Amino acid sequence: KLHRQISNLDEVVGDDLLSIISGVLRVNNVAINEQNFFRMVEISKKYNPDSIVATHNSNKEIFLASSLIHTTRNSSKQKVSYNIFNRQFLIAFDGNLNDRDELALKLEINLDNVSDSYLLLRAYLKWGQSFLKMIDGNFAFSIWDDHNKILILSKIYKIKAFFSANVSLSD
Fold it and tell me: How many CB atoms lie within 10 A of CB 66?
């Protein structure tokens, strides 16, 4: 079932697909079948990404992956796991922030070797869930705040598709 749904991506987005963000969140304490998640990530290889990074939190409540085509100078710096202020965050990010310099000033961060995904997380830490009002760019992302058990999904892309589904990956 999952393979059939993901295989149909070609019919929906055709050649326009650049990067894929994928993830699975455990619901109702049903264990995640890791093999199914990694099969989902494996399917993204047919789009020839420049990098594929997959991770999960410590108790395997959530698995996230980024299969990225590096289209900006910062895209190769993206990470999927950060520990900030002794809190774990997972992020899958594709896109770019247009206001990096202004955002870094507001966050009091030196931009040397800092990825857009890190800036996004720091904005979330400073402004909470209203952080999207403070940033400008073209992107899609998922953030897992492990401390608060919050999953944030957002797409601010004018031309890219964004799909989510509630499917069973436990089988």
Answer: 28
Quick one: DSSP state of residue 15? G
Q: Within 10 Å of residue 141's Cβ, how many Cβ atoms?
A: 22
Tokens 């900006």 correspond to 72
- What is the C-alpha to C-alpha distance for residues 138 and 68, in angstroms, rounded to an integer? 15
Q: Within the chain, how many helices (H) and strands (E) appear? A: 5, 7
Cα separation, 126 vs 104, in Å, equals 12
Say if CB 61 and CB 83 are below 8 A apart: no
Q: What is the pLDDT of residues 89-102, one digit of tens each?
A: 888 888 788 888 99
**The residue type at 82:** Y
pTM passes above 0.70: yes
